[in-house]
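Q: For a teaching session next week I want to show students how multiple molecules come together into a single three-dimensional assembly. I've collected the sequence lines for a complex. Could you give me the predicted structure tokens for the whole thing so I can convert them for display?
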Amino acid sequence: MHRHRIFRISRRAAALAIGLTLLSPQFAVADGPERERTGGSAPLLADSLKPIKLEVGISSAQLKKLRERGKAAERAGKPLPKADVPFQTEHRSERESAAGRADLTFAEAAEFIEQDAERRKAPMNSRVDSYLGQQQTVRTAPLAEGGFTTQATAATIGETPSQALYDSCMTADAASDAGRVYDRFTFCQQVPITAEYWEKDAAGNPVDHLGTTKATLEIVAQGFEDQRTMRLFSQIKQGSVSYDWGWWDNIWTAPGVPLSLFGTCAPDQLDCGASRSPATLTWDNWNNNPSWAYWDISNSATAGYGRDKVMPSFWRVEFFTDTDEFSTDAPGTSPVQVIRCDSAAYIVGPFGADRSHGCVFPGATPILRYSLSGTEAAVAQHILGAQTRPEYTYPRLPAEEEAQRDKSIPGQAINGQPVHYGLHRIHSTLNATEYQANRDHKDGACYGTGPQASRYAGLGLNPPPDTSTQQCDEYPFASTLEGAASPDWDFSVQAVPITDNASAGGKLIAYYNADRILAWDATLPYPDGSNDRFWVEIVD
Amino acid sequence: MHAQPLDLTRLWGEGWAVTFAPRPPAFCLDAMGVSKAAPLPDGLAAFARRSPFDGPPVLVAAAVLDERWSVVVESEAQTGWVGTHPDVLEALAAPGAPACTATSDPNKVQVVFREYGSPVGGLEPRTNRRWGHFADRTRQSLREAGFPDGHATQEHPVPAAPSEGALALLAAQAVTGTELRAEHLQGSWLGGLTAKPYPTTP
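A: Of course. Below is the structure for the complete assembly, covering every listed component.
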């Protein structure tokens, strides 16, 4: 009797799983840290995007001072002076400390990520909908322009984001509440902000609406691949500031008002810490000579979940004006985003280079790409056949079962979009039982050997591989939970040239490490949803 | 009783190849297609400076194990492991001393070897599935290392090891009668780039 493939993923688990893998990845290699200012080439924000509001009170005395300073500058024919505070320091004062409270559970974090998926929603392949019982629609963002090329390691992280990375990431998709998850290690966003200024009397009561200042806030975030830290960059987009204070104040008062940006952990979140002070410039300086401020957002392995100490960090950028003369009634905050950090000891660089800690954006859809024209061509051809015409693959279904259904093989992505269930990595040592079971079924289906040989009698690969030149390739991979032994999914075996199989294996290990695909951990809360998934796309 | 082999999976992860050959390091690299071999000043750390998506050409490095044997390591298999090419194994084998390569990627761990003048033989160490040519001496060496003659079963298991990578190294060491120790990894290495293609005929 052939194994029954039963769809066992609950709707709840499926929803959580969807929440962890959201957007199309776009891989690119940044060209290292650059010192010059980046920005200025990004698109304008859509008018429909709702601005984030900031309300600031200005004392009558300070307003008078501001206007006198403006008059002096006007008389002298000089620009307004810069803010008389340091742009940014390493010191993070107590008021600004963002050590979060650990009162958000892992399940709540998973729900947040699920909701985050909804923010990035776009229709998915209907086939997936049908697998989810027509109840749950898998969502992902549309493939952004630029296409894909190949997998890449994380970009170098400096004190500013590189211009190349900025240009690649900050496309129209970034100008949204959800921002753009560019790849597993990079996020970017543009959001409109609006600051309302009120004159306040000595008692702190608003007495007059002075005006409104509008601008575009820019955010770039990069996960490290060797520590549990993310670097968060922010600035006001050059040339984006406009004033509505009245004609004279527009020129001589409003531009001299300071604005602070502050990267921080979101409140009420899991163990999280952030470094460095707010960054302060006048609106005029932000508008004409912006500088990237940066903060490092970290969490510790101690509080992490499961074998790999997985822990999300929720973060945002706050903006305000807080000095003795100004009072921020309602600071503005960018939409909360999430990064996931882990301490997976088995993620390594060549010959043990330390990659055992790292942070990735779970909103990226991890996709391995094999090429029909690459050194792994025969494997790519096999996978394409398995994904698209599984009924023609080995092992055959038993006749009575074949009359009832077609084989179904997961893991396919097309044009950067998942169109089937994702694959979960397993590790030969950490998931030894599942790994061994995959091997046994593969040997049975491919060579007619091993403990599962009788199960595939008359159904397995015929003829078996010529071991002098060929190996048995299996899809889904032996290193996935959905491999040959999976009770839920079918699989395919095919004889391929040894060199193609070795090349595909080499590219797989490079991909697992580069995209930081964690191996299955059944001890995680909601393991079906919270473990990493990835997809396989076959390209020309 | 054999000493516990190095666990290269723990040290290097799931992607590596190790070749044992009864030839000097420079000879090994030449056979593997390296045209310009040079000492690696910081040894195997040279691999850490390469992207996993580098290559071809790929970096290979060789070192002396003892007065007869050398070890060659690879960590980039974008075009397959050079040490598994049949013509490489043929060139590296010597009378009475086979050349042998253990490889690991996420999907499979294998050992392939070639006795002097014989076809390639191979095995998967976890299941002990075997293919190709096994000389009596090779069978006996593997038997003495604890491997059964047939497919591994509960009654006739393969030796216990911390990982399949360690098991592969145990098998490779049994086939060649050599031993890779931690101090070898810290020693002097000769390295170079190769883009040698897989031979069109085995």
